[in-house]
RNA sequence: GCUCGAGUGGUGGAAUUGGUAGACACGUUGGACUUAAAAUCCAAUGAGCAUCGCGCUCGUGCGGGUUCAAGUCCCGCCUCGAGUACCA
């Protein structure tokens, strides 16, 4: 019979499930370890081989940590809200809940077949009211919080109300929208509505009229990270800017803490870099320019990272949306300015981005004063200045900013050089091809800073403008507040209602606010979100409830916390659970979440941390991005105009068209011709030009997709080879972090390895052949070398080399005809994290009645690895010429003598002088001759 | 444009601290076993040269450099991938 993986895998999957082998509870006697996978969105097409890659790695690590005595939390759940189920509902009327449930069942079935050690008693689903109750609860926490810059953390709005009643907003250093000063007396005289409006400007979850990314095709707004190159991430539909009243999260309050927190995280550098870029901190100064002439009372504030170049500012540019545009535009320019503003407004984001090289703008007719030169400079508007960054206005320094340079050239505006490269002389800017943007250089034509290096001039200018009261050093961030409303059905309802036009939070005992049934999943005729279709969508008192729903990232922002205490009915999680499990020790998932989920989660966690609800400031200590598995598409080559197909090697002889062919019809690039003929009716009578009697297919590495016929789902492979083979093979494919093409060609090798391993323990009739005979030195060496290698490979997440270490060991033990318990029992434990089913079976057959998961991981003993001799590679001038076995403890000078007097050395020494001998003990001997 | 990452046999990849380049596996070729197939086992397999079983030369994207020694470090390029994009 041999290795009967189907029987074995079924048996152990049932055993684990029945015995709740992986159920985990708080155990103060054991150290905790929390291994988390990014939970999947259960899509209709089920798992393909790319999904389990990260799960297999995390499962190996979890099982390893259990063997090492840790209490391992390794949960799984579903990110169950999402667009596809909703779109399916719109098309078919099927409630998204039904579609989602069906997909989850399919996912679960597929996951179970791979033999993961998840504690399913902790499963969470973001769409489950028992879960989203806590998403809504957290939203209320955000609504009831504001950010105090003095303490650098979130505090309660209730405390803010007390402060306002006693002090007004004097001396308050909060992150907020623009607020005028008010006194305690004024505050106390305000109506409730006025007070609520003011508080809204401080809340961490707030509603406001903001410029949002509106996607007409999807009928919803999107957060910045959901827009890629002016198109929606989902579906690739055009996105436009639109002013709408929406919920947002004041994540910008945490910009600096989100940036600083990265330093101590064990995350890939590339991912940290992406987050740093996304946060986009830049240091500079804000400077106030007074308007010249009739408008002399007005002022324009700009942000610049180069205050040193202030003397070179020869004009100003405002974003077309800037609030002063109307006010400052002169009568004779009004028409042109209005036309430009209208034109700019109607340009899609995509157009604006792709037409970056086209310079456009319009003079307003107004002038400002350069505060340092007192020269009048013209004020223009142009859409290369963005309303959303800095102050939406810039001082243009065409000599030292390439965009300003292009603009000045186009509109014939003056250019002044104020920075010169060290040691170079001033040149005529009218002859330049480009501006000099570098900070390396010395100031010229710049009044009191002339002669200073630019870096020093930046500091000196900031000091001067602060003294003059016309500006100050400031820091700007690119990060925007997260827009949190979606005009969709399938998402968490906001626990909010409206009274007198202002939103209020529901009381906690009203949670969860369950998603209502609706007749239509589309927006209403009036253009309101789908929830407006619900009957009676009001509070008990009759106040209307919020009709927007939360975005996809709401449910995923704090799910790792719920896993700590998933069945708690009265709290999100208990203090005890949080203090025990603390944070995620290892988080594995894709890097597509760098600017989304991983920033929102960190923010979410920090707010809860500030409120004393969680004990760690950062949620994910170590993070690994598993690479994507790309598809490997196969092609057949049809001779144009015929139904004749030519084999890969001969395709150049004919004009051909390459067609994707289903990868299930191809094995080792050889086409199953009959299968192909039956694949589609049009190929029934196809003819073939073969090479060596075979039809060889071409291949290409592409994204896995249905249309390319290259999707590999794991079920068929498990059917054919078993889960243990799949697990080993996915790991053997290459380094975890690397993108790699899926190619089943190599899977046979891993399958052969497991069968070979089986034969070490069992004979042809499946009788155990293990003996209690004492192991030999060679056998012990092979085992202990492997223990050492496999342990260190798991610890550094090098799973592919771990698999190869197993193969080497099994090859060696087979050669030694080893069948000794002393060797093969520990070996089974070593393998258990990678191939748990076969290891359990062997373990049981060896007479153990407990699951192998309870066994202690073997520790290698260096004594068995000691060698008496080392085979030195002997090099001459760095080129290896021969090998020489010498005792390991031989003295350096003896090694030199031995090498020089070796028989093979003579030929290389003949007629040469030995200039130098390098001996690195137990490494290498290099003889330099000349 | 900017930021980050990667380029090693026919293929996936290994080489952890600068120290034998190509581990392990696939594929291919030849052989054993078998009526045959599957399975299994053995041998060869970077390229080139060779008085083809002594051996030599070249070889980790390209060009330089440091070093006794470079896939690994430094400088300059090329190609591919990812992120981001008028961020002042």
Could you explain the architecture of this structure?
It is a single chain. The chain has 930 residues and is α+β, with helices and mostly antiparallel strands. The chain folds into five domains: 23-122 and 557-625, HUPs (Rossmann fold), CATH 3.40.50.620; 282-476, Valyl/Leucyl/Isoleucyl-tRNA synthetase, editing domain (Isoleucyl-tRNA Synthetase, domain 2, Alpha-Beta Complex); 629-711, no CATH class; 722-864, Isoleucyl-tRNA Synthetase, Domain 1; 867-929, Roll (Ubiquitin-like (UB roll)). Helix 3 (83-92) crosses helix 4, helix 24 (777-795) runs parallel beside helix 26 (821-831) and helix 26 (821-831) packs antiparallel against helix 27 (836-845). The longest helix has 19 residues, at 777-795. The protein binds one RNA strand of 88 nucleotides through helix 10, strand 12, strand 16, helix 14 and strand 32.
For the record, the CATH architecture of the largest domain stands as Alpha-Beta Complex
**Helix coverage percent:** 25-40%
Corresponding CATH superfamily of the largest domain: Valyl/Leucyl/Isoleucyl-tRNA synthetase, editing domain
Nearest-angstrom radius of gyration? 35 Å
Measured distance between first and last alpha carbons: 65 Å
The residue-averaged pLDDT reads 91
Can you tell me the overall shape? globular
Category from helices, strands and their pairing: alpha+beta
Low-confidence stretches: none
User: If you consult CATH, what is the topology of the largest domain?
Assistant: Isoleucyl-tRNA Synthetase, domain 2
How much β-strand is present in the residues? 15-25%
Number of strands: 36
Sheet having the most strands:
6 strands, mixed
Number of domain units? 5
CATH class assignment of the largest domain: Alpha Beta
* Number of helical regions: 29
